[in-house]
Write a structure and sequence with these properties.
CATH topology of the largest domain: Methane Monooxygenase Hydroxylase, Chain G, domain 1
Number of strands: 5
Number of domains: 2
Largest sheet: 3 strands, antiparallel
Order of helices and strands: HEEEEHEHHHH
């Protein structure tokens, strides 16, 4: 959702990608490396052709240096996303997706599209899924009242997008409930 500058008080999408870079992901290393300690933890050893589980930031770094192939997460395939899109368009509730699916999928498509099966179809499905979920968010925001908004299974990017609208709306609704005549 495009927001006016005055409402952009939330975390930016690149900052959310940075946060998501702590998620662990499988890689097939092309180099050997002993177990190495970082601030966020110790990872490795890397031994080709065995898979290793490392943070996304490390996988991106190795991929950019052509020292590994990134293995897509189980949820990042055409069949899974088509199923989720079908649920999204046919059911009133949000389908359950990984909390940081938008950020992780963007990073993987940007950096490791050559390691993914059918990246163009994945991009298309993610776009359709995003649009379907945004339509549900808009629908949910139309039914907002002064006490709550229930939109379960939102991902971090979606929460970040609606946060400014929600905060401002709840503020206005609270003022109206407290003093309905003075605000008219």
């Amino acid at each position: 959702m495009a927001l006016p500058q005055s409402l952009r008080q939330s975390v930016t999408p690149p900052e959310l990608e940075l946060i998501a870079s702590q998620e662990l992901i499988d890689v097939v290393p092309l180099i050997s490396m002993e177990r190495t300690a970082f601030i966020s933890g110790a990872y490795g050893p890397l031994r080709p052709p065995n898979k290793a589980r490392i943070p996304l930031w490390m996988a991106v770094n190795l991929k950019l240096k052509k020292k590994c192939h990134i293995v897509a997460p189980d949820w990042f395939n055409v069949d899974y996303l088509q199923t989720r899109l079908a649920r999204e368009t046919s059911e009133p509730v949000f389908s359950d997706l990984p909390f940081r699916f938008a950020e992780i999928s963007k990073v993987l498509l940007d950096v490791a599209s050559d390691d993914l099966e059918n990246p163009d179809k994945l991009r298309s499905l993610l776009k359709d899924l995003r649009e379907a979920r945004q339509a549900k968010c808009r629908e949910g925001l139309q039914h907002i009242d002064h006490s709550e908004l229930s939109l379960p299974n939102l991902c971090s990017m979606e929460i970040n997008e609606i946060r400014p609208f929600f905060i401002e709306s709840m503020s206005v609704l609270t003022r109206l409930v407290r003093n309905p005549i003075a605000d008219r």
